[in-house]
């Protein structure tokens, strides 16, 4: 039986004045690549932040590697779980090498300098993600795709068994999106565990071994992509007509919405937007 690396039980997550997820439970085995999907505001990012300990759980428990996260010190947390947020600002002209080396800090005492082994790990991570030629360039001068690969190299340098990635492919072109997902797939094949927020359902279907669908304050579905990406479940989650089909050429899932006919109010609004009409106000 595979090792359980993450267990979430009866978790209520959100903020003191706003519950976003209510009493959700699931467990994650080593080597899984799990996509968190669902509409905006469903609580996907909130769930990751709560698992990482950045937001306190309102109720329930979270255990990583059989340890309650409330008992983990910041250093322990950084050694078992790496987290990549949606947006990471780099305000100063830190180089790629300096950013990636920051992933080694959980293993260093305050008086220690990076060792030869630390440098070797960082260089291996940069080479693996294809940013070694950029090692001495400032991160804030790179493209979005290059910057994402640098940040992925940084969290790889932490050498944690669990990686939490919040929309790692957001804003990237198709090539970089697929590259990020392939990196994650390779990591999971090597025994790491990845839990990531995904909005691109086609990518989730192709690369993730399992999907968790969040909506309406709960987890609507949890299972293999073919089980979760169904028209009834997606329509319930997103609140619009959805069609799911298999591309006969690639075998990949094609997922798209079906537009309802515009009502009279929408047509009036469009006329105003186009400068062709003015809507009267009561």
Question: Can you put this structure into words, describing what you see?
Answer:
A six-stranded mixed beta sheet has the order 6-7-8-3-9-10, with helices on both faces. A four-stranded antiparallel beta sheet has the order 2-1-4-5, covered by helices on one side. A hairpin with a 2-residue loop joins strand 1 and strand 2 (18-29). It has ten helices and twelve strands. It has 282 residues and is an alpha/beta fold.
List strands and helices in order, with pairings.
Layout (H helix, E strand, L loop, with lengths): L3 E12 L2 E12 L3 E5 L6 H8 L7 E6 L2 E2 L5 H7 E4 L11 H6 L14 H13 L15 H14 L4 E5 L7 H16 L3 E5 L3 H7 L2 E6 L2 E6 L1 H4 L2 H8 L3 E5 L6 E5 L6 H10 L9
Largest beta-sheet characterization: 6 strands, mixed
The oligomerization state is: single chain
State the helix count: 10
**In whole angstroms, how far apart are the ends?**
66 Å
Strand content: 25-35%
- Read across the widest sheet, the strand sequence of neighbours is 6-7-8-3-9-10
Rounded mean pLDDT is 90
Percentage of helical residues? 25-40%
Order of helices and strands: EEEHEEHEHHHEHEHEEHHEEH
**Rg (CA only):** 21 Å
C-alpha geometry: globular
Q: How many DSSP-defined strands?
A: 12
As residue ranges, the low-confidence spans are none
Which structural class should the secondary elements be placed in? alpha/beta
